[in-house]
Amino acid sequence: SLVTILSRSHADRNVYPSAGVLFVHVLEREYFKGEFPPYPKAGDPSNDPITFNTNLKGYPDRPGWLRYIQRTPHSDGVLYGSPTAEHIGKPTVIEITAYNRRTFETARHNLVINIKAAEEFPLPYQAEFYIKNMNVEEMLASEVLGDFLGAVKNVWQPERLNAINITSALDRGGRVPLPINNLKEGVYVMVGADVPFSSCLREVESPHNQLRCSQEMEPVISCDKKFRAQFHIDWCKISLVDINKVVPVYVTRPEPGTGILPEFGEYKPPSESLKSRDYFSDFLVTLAVPSAVALVLFFILGYTMCCRREGVEKRNMQTPDIQLVHHSSIQKSTKELRSMSKNREISWPLSTLPVFNPVSGEVVPPIHPDNYETTSMPLMQTQANLQNQITIPQQRPSGEDLKTAVL
C-alpha cells in the first residue's frame, strides 16, 4: 500500500496586538482536525495526536519576542509574547504547520500579526509576581489570566492595568518539579499600571519583611488573602519597578569611518640582498649548556653512589656479634631446608624434634658438647642419635607400673 502525505493550505488570519501588551494566540487542535483527510465534521470523536511547528516566514525560527508552548500532542498549542515598539506598523507573518502524528498529514496556514501602538507605552509602573502553583500554559488561559488581573486591580486600584509578559520559571533558571503532589513549574507574570504602587504592594519592602525573606520565611502581607484562594504568590520574589526613576543606560558606539585607509606613503619592500646570519654560535649554546648540566649531574650522582656508599665490612663492624650469629644461623638453616626439599627420604631435621621429654617433661640434653659451635652444627641427625635423646614409654601386659628405659 502507498501512503500519501497530503498538505492543505488555508487563508491568512490577521490579529492586531498592541505593543507592550501580552499577546496570546491559541492553536486549537479542533480547528485543524477538520483539515486532515477525510475531513471529518466538527465534534468527531477521533483524537489523533497533533503537533505544531511555528516560524517566521522565510526564517527557521520565530521572532525573539514570540514564544510557543505545547505540553502534549493531545493539547492545544499557544503562541504568546510581548511585542516591542520597533515592530509597530510592520506585519509579522508566522507560518503555522500542523502535523497529524498518526496519518503523517500536514496542514498549514499563515498568521499575520499587525502590531499597533498602545495609548500609553510603556506603562510607568510595573510589578512582576511569581506564582508558585501555576504552569505557563495554565496561566495563559483567558479566564485564569483575567482572574489574576482582577485580583491585582482590586489591590492596586489603577485606571489602566495590562498584562505585559508571562515567563515560565524554567526560563529563569528554575528546576523541573518532581511529579508528586501536583507540583507546578511556577510562572512570572509582569503587569503594568498608570498609578503608583499601593501600600499593600509596598509592604514587602519593609525591613521586617526583608528580614523574614532573608531567613527564608514568608513575609506578612495584608492583601495576600485576596490572592490565596487561587494564586500562591511568593512575595519575596516580587519586583516593583518605576520606569520614571530608572536611569537609562546608553551604549556609545564608535562612529563608522569612511572605509578608506590613511595615507602611509609609498610602499617600500625589503631589500633583495639580505645579510646572511651565522647560527653556529646559537647551535653550540643550545647543545653545550644542557650537555654541561647533564655531565655535572652525572658526576654528582656517580660520586654519591660509589664513593659515599656504606660498605659491608663497615656495617658488620657496627653490628653486635650476637646479632650476626643469629642471622648466620638463620641463613644456614634456610640453605639446609632448601637442600632437604630436593630429597624427601632424609630424616626430619633436628629443629623439628621436641625439646622436652613427652613423659617426664625434662629438657632433653644436647647431643653435642658445650664447646661445640652451634652455628656450624647440622640440623640433620641420624636415627641412632635420636634414640639416645628421647625416652619412649612402654606398657607391660601384666599391668605393672610404667618404666622408662634409657639406653
From TrEMBL:
It is found in: Cell membrane, Sarcolemma; Cell projection, Dendrite; Cytoplasm, Cytoskeleton; Golgi apparatus. The keyword Secreted does not apply. It comes from the Eukaryota. Pfam families: Sarcoglycan_2 (PF05510), Sarcoglycan_2_C (PF20989). The keyword Cell membrane applies. Its main location: membrane. It is a single-pass membrane protein. Residues 14-122 form the Dystroglycan-type cadherin-like domain. Keywords: Cell membrane, Cell projection, Cytoplasm, Cytoskeleton, Glycoprotein, Golgi apparatus, Membrane, Transmembrane, Transmembrane helix, Ubl conjugation. The chain crosses the membrane at residues 283-306. GO terms for cellular component: cytoskeleton; dendrite; Golgi apparatus; sarcoglycan complex; sarcolemma. Belongs to the sarcoglycan alpha/epsilon family. Component of the sarcoglycan complex, a subcomplex of the dystrophin-glycoprotein complex which forms a link between the F-actin cytoskeleton and the extracellular matrix. This is Epsilon-sarcoglycan. It comes from Oreochromis aureus.
